[in-house]
Structures are given as C-alpha cells and as structure tokens.
Design goal:
This protein is mainly α. The protein has one domain: Rossmann fold (3-Layer(aba) Sandwich). It is built from 6 helices and 3 strands, in the order H-E-H-H-E-H-H-E-H. Helix 1 runs parallel beside helix 3 and helix 3 runs parallel beside helix 5.
Length: about 160
C-alpha cells in the first residue's frame, strides 16, 4: 500500500500459511502497532486441507498474541477467484493446480473470522465489496482471475483505509 511510509509489505508471491508461520518471528520482532494478514488462497490452490491451513493460521495469530501482545491484528477475508479469467490466465501455466471453489473460500473465511474473535486486539475485515453478485472476484479488479490489478488494489485500499489511521 503506497503512501504509508512506515508500512512494510511482507507478502511473498505464492506464499501460504506455512511460509508465514515460518517467518512470523521476523515479521513481529519490531512489535508493530498493526499487522494486516491476508493468506489462505494459496493453501487452497495447493490442495492443502482447509483444516490444516486453519490450524496454521491459528498458530500465527497465537504467536503474534504471545510475542507482540499490543499489536492490533487485522485478519482480512481471502478473495475468491474469477473463474473465467483464472481458467484463461492461470491454468494454462499451472494445469495441475487445484481451482479454489467458492464454497472453500466461504468456509475458510468463516473459520478465520471465528479465530479472530478469540483475541482482544484482533479484527476481521470482510472484503466482500470486491466480490460480484455471483460470489466471484469482480472481473474489473483482476487481470488473471486471482491477483488484484490496479483498480482492484484501489478498491482494496478503500476497504482498509478506516483501519490504517
């Protein structure tokens, strides 16, 4: 998110809950005021069982709570894919990837929303404003059906703005 000089983007392309869990100590070592987390779609794409990904997500949240108790954590819902663009842009290069089903995304988001309630300084952010009436990622917000394009990033930042100040 540009325009926030003290913000650090620790996202890594293709990362999943295992990768974040592996790096969580270096992410929170400076005792950040706020941490925004969006992860899980890559776990689903890799075919990891949702319960396993949720368990790792729970570990991530617990570690932040223990090692950086004053950090406010904002857990963002994962976004569904746009199936039409996904099939055209992602699948040709990754034919064996698991296509994230809308129901898997909904189940995952319900689970992480419940996890968030267990902590005092944690809040769940529902990003359904980036989803169309079919429950898919809005076609205007993605070029490949998975990742946000510039217009999608702008919509995402608008959704987060109230939590940034």
């Amino acid at each position: 998110m540009t325009g926030i000089p003290e913000a650090k983007n620790r996202g890594i392309s293709g990362d999943d809950t295992s990768g974040i869990l592996y790096r969580i100590d270096e992410i929170i070592e400076g005792k950040p005021k706020k941490v925004f987390i969006m992860c899980g779609i890559n776990d689903i794409q890799k075919g990891h069982p949702i319960n396993q990904a949720i368990s790792k997500y729970s570990e991530i949240l617990s570690i932040i709570s223990q090692k950086s108790p004053n950090t406010h954590v904002y857990v963002q819902s994962i976004l569904p894919i746009n199936p039409q663009k996904y099939r055209l842009k992602i699948l040709p290069d990754h034919p064996y990837i698991h296509i994230p089903d809308r129901s898997e995304v909904i189940r995952f988001n319900k689970s992480i929303s419940k996890l968030t309630l267990q902590y005092r300084n944690y809040q769940f952010i529902d990003l359904s404003s980036l989803v169309n009436s079919n429950g898919d990622l809005c076609v205007d917000f993605t070029d490949d059906g998975l990742h946000l394009n510039a217009k999608g990033m702008q919509a995402w930042v608008r959704s987060l703005r109230q939590y940034l100040n």
